[in-house]
Amino acid sequence: MQFTITIIGRLNVGKSTLFNKLTKTNNALIDSVPGLTRDRKYGEIFTKKEILSLIDTAGIITNPKNIEIDILKQTMTAIKEANLILFIVDNKDGLMSEDKEIANKIRLYQKKTIIIVNKTEKTNANLASAEFYSLGFKEIIPVSAMHNIGIDSLLNKYIIPIANKYILYNTKKSKISIYKEKNNTDYQLNPIKIAVLGKPNVGKSTLINTFLKEDRLITYKKPGTTRDAIWVSIKNARKNFVFIDTAGINKKNKKNDNINIITKNDTFKNIKHAHIILVIIDATENISDQDLSLCNSVLKIGRAIIIVFNKCDLLKKKIKKEIKNNINYKLRFLKFANIHYISAIHKTGLNKLLQSIYTTYKSTTDIFTTSQLTKIMQMAIKKQEPPIIQGSRIKLRYAHPGGYNPPKIIIHGKKTKYLNQSYKKYLKNYFQNMLKITGSSINLYFKDNINPYNS
Predict the structure, then answer these.
(1) Which of 441, 379, 386 is nearest to 413 (CA)?
(2) Position 240 pLDDT exceeds 50
(3) Among the three residues 307, 335, 365, which one is the final residue of a domain in this structure?
(4) How many domains does the chain have?
(5) Dihedral sign computed on CA atoms, order 210, 80, 35, 52
(6) Which of 414, 412, 408, 448 is CA-nearest to residue 428?
(7) pLDDT confidence of residue 321
(8) Which residues on adjacent β-strands are paired with residue 280?
(9) Mean pLDDT, rounded, of the chain
(10) Exposure of 111 by Cβ count < 10 A (0-12 exposed, 13-18 middle, 19+ buried)?
(11) Same structural domain for residues 391 and 254?
């Protein structure tokens, strides 16, 4: 029985810092710049008995405009999902009129609420709490999230007992549904993790929303809407997915350089967890050096890659053909990767993209046997022998698997260190074609057999 806790409050009161302390992660971005969090971000609190769901939200603005309206909708959705609300206020600022307006908003939902008075490290706890009783909530807990003061008490004396009481009551009401859920293990285990990467405003969040069939992520015409990397679970009849929406990787911008650095670091930290990375490119623009740089970054990280050209609905047929020819030339170093032309907003080309995700995942995680790989290696040698070095031909004895995602093959032999790059490339392509691996380049490693009788 899932118990959900939502953290809310004004801008820059320490919501994301508290989120990180309770989840014991650094998943939520924190900075002195207000408004860094926009989408609702999910995390987990691990207790001895249960796993509790925790949601970090954007700061509530009382008179929202433009994108702030969509951000507020995300926060209000998180409040509706909550079984417990942690309403954070700032001890240094004292009681603000915005705090009173937020209290009035959440009171309408009649949710169990705890006031968290943050930044109390230099103040008497009782004095810090006193003025906030006027908000009308019974439990008021002083903490300092940054200095980890009062966090254990908040968790053990308040959050866990409230959660246990809720779970115990609701478990008695739904034993049958819980039994079914626990026994549906094939469906739940090992989801495919897919990171969505690209420049700002290419449609990354729109694509995930379309797969999810709801406006889970904020989309806006202004670039740079997504800042936190957001993990979104999507259930499918064939397999569970986790999509990782990332901030758009932008060129250096002195005006927002601090935010760009924080979000870029967060993006690359998160995509390392993915099995597959979708690189989204705007089909209405030429492939830029930045797009090519992102593709190269994915190859260096060693993850499977699928190239997705979005907004194809805006192109005429004749132009589409010209663009495809140009793409095939510029992306010739990614011959092993599937390329898709879609419209996320109009839901075209998504079935083929989904199928490509399945095949790429299977291709890069298949486990091959030593006999299978050695046989393919021998076929490659028969077709084209290794070069002769110092009067004798380089000998390749056998091949065995060294890992997957990306696939790694280790080849043992004699004088393998003298193999030139062109023959290594030949072997790599031969294995790639014979094993029908798509989405990822094979990594070959060579080892010389050591003769134990040589001194």
Answers:
(1) 386
(2) yes
(3) 365
(4) 3
(5) negative
(6) 408
(7) 73
(8) 198, 308
(9) 79
(10) middle
(11) no
